[in-house]
Amino acid sequence: MDISENDLPSVKFEKEIKDQINYSALERYVKNQTEDDKIDNWLQLFQSKVEPYLTESSKDSAFDHDKRCKHFNYLINVIISKINSLSNDFGKIAEWSQKIKDWRNDYYGSDSNLKCNEFNRYFDSNEKNVDTFCEYSSFINYKLTNIQNSVHCQKIVNAMSTRKDDLIRPLASDELDSSTQHGVGEESSEELVSQT
Q1: What is the rounded CA–CA span in Å between residue 127 and residue 32?
Q2: Does residue 169 form part of some domain?
Q3: Per-residue model confidence as pLDDT tens digits over 121-135
């Protein structure tokens, strides 16, 4: 089996679900230029497409309910944030956001295979990045021989290196902020980065 970066669990889940809901269309919508009907239609498509995908994928024994639930709730929050940015009409924004939240809560209550609720979520993007990095590391260790023999091995190594850098960057930034506030020199932040 030739494993690529797209086989990493969160990448695969996010790509599949975004394809199902036509997320790229939502990303192209522009504030006060996209008609309300277009957004309403996208929301209907979202509801009709995501439900069968989640129902079917949650039956898979390899499906990590906790991680996928957190990941999906994170995506829901990203979608709500994007939709909130599309209009100055607070009534319409509230209606769209509530429609998504109501659908999510109804769906979570109706699917016994999907062990998920709205409170099972990442605190912020840093927590999501750490969790995803750990999941990838575990997946890579489990599939190490296949990955080493894959033509995509270097791409996976590069992706993991990038993800590691993404995790270290906020730490280094926090250390720089802290050292500036406490009059500490730059050496301490450089030491922090080199230690990780």
Answers
A1: 33
A2: yes
A3: 888 888 888 888 888
d(CA 133, CA 171): 15
Distance from C-alpha of 31 to C-alpha of 82, rounded to nearest angstrom = 9
CB atoms closer than 10 angstroms to residue 60: 10
Structure tokens at 22: 């036509």
pTM of the complete model: 0.77
Domain span at 17: 5-110
In the chain, alpha helices (H): 9-20, 23-28, 36-57, 65-84, 90-110, 125-142, 144-148, 153-181, 187-195
Q: Are residues 90 and 144 in the same domain?
A: no
Alpha-carbon Rg for the chain in angstroms = 20
**How far is 129 from 70, CA to CA, in rounded Å?**
12
